[in-house]
Structure formats: C-alpha cells, structure tokens
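Justification of resources, computational component.

The compute hours requested in this renewal are based largely on the per-chain cost of generating structure records like the one below. Each record pairs the submitted sequence with a full structure-token output. That output is archived, and it is also reused by downstream analysis tasks.
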Amino acid sequence: MNFELMASMMCANFGNLEQEIKDLEEGGIDSFHIDIMDGRYVSNYAMSLNDMRYIASAAAKPLDVHLMVEHPNNTIELFIKRLRPGDTIYIHPEAEYHPSTTLQKIINAGLIPGIAINPGTSVETVMEMLRIVKKVLVMSVNPGNAGQMYLPYVGKKITKLLSLKEDMEFEIYWDGACSADKILEFAPKGVKGFVLGTTLLFGKNTTYGETLRNIRELRF
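The structure output for this chain reads:
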C-alpha cells in the first residue's frame, strides 16, 4: 500500500541535525514536517524560521511546514521565500481573519497550500477552503506539544473528509499520536500520509531505515 511518511522534526536530535536529515533521507522518509509555534496561537514554542531555513538547505526531500501562529498572513512571506517548489505550507483557519488571502499567497508562490484542522474544528467551518487547498492536515491531538494522547472522535471527522476529498481534490494527512494501528486503520481508507514523531520514529533502538521499512511492511 502506498502512503507517505513525514518526520516530525521537532522530535529530532538538534545536537546533530545534519546527520539526522541524512539518516532520515537515506532511511526512506518522504518529507520533513516542520512545526513552527509562536507561543500565542499555541502555548508552546517549537521550531524557528532559521531551523526551517537550515533544513531546507540541507534536505533533498520536500518540506511540510505547519504554521501554528497567529495571523500568518503578517509573516507568510518570510516562510515563502525560504521554501522551494513542491514544499507545503499549512495554516490554521482560526488563526487568520481571511485565511483564503494567506492561502492565495502560498499558491501564487508555487507552493502547495494546506490547512490544519484542530480536534475541535468542524469540517463544516472549513468547507469553502477545501476547494482551495491541496492538503488537509488533521490534528488527532490538540496542537502545541509532542507525545499527547489520541482523541478518538477525530476518526469520525476523517471519515467525513474522506467522503469529500475526491470531489474537492485534496489529500488527507494525519498529525499527532500516530501509532501503527492508526496507519493500519486509516491508510486503507484513503489517508495519504502520516506525521511520525516519538510514538513510531524517534527515540527507538533501531535505525531510521529499519523503522521506516517496518512501518511500510505493516500487514494490511
């Protein structure tokens, strides 16, 4: 079964980031997921603009940039000009007065537009934007911290999005508490990709290549 695996780089070893990027790429990761937090939209601070810029310069694989910031339209150009065609930027619709304006800037720059949907955000409130974006990042935990518990009602939201994705031409991605059983359940249903953090990828006693190979060889 064909699905994408993205490395949540906020969980990586920043003491040897260049080697982490090399090992992940050699191990078969599909993209690098970059969590940018401003301490306002979420209560935590995570990766920075400079972290993103370094990974963009060191990585051959695409970047998947998740902006957990208030009013991303105010700073979106800072991120756009440091990314490459084929990279993705997700924004949270609740964080912006006119999210479609910010998404249009992403599109005009030749990048892939996406929205991230919090557990408490209903599909109905973002329906119009589903025709603009190419990717929908479904948060299975509240944003802001790694290692949280999965919120089970998110599964019903994914079912609703799966019923819309063909007509509206977007793909669905999973972010948060991604375990093997979630991939086994949702990849066959049509979820395109999964962000991997401490639950499956980082801090294990195997190489990234072995870990990623074991995930791709799950028995469906």
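The helical segments are 17-27, 49-58, 76-80, 99-108, 154-162, 165-168, 180-186, 208-216. The first strand starts at residue 4 and ends at 8.
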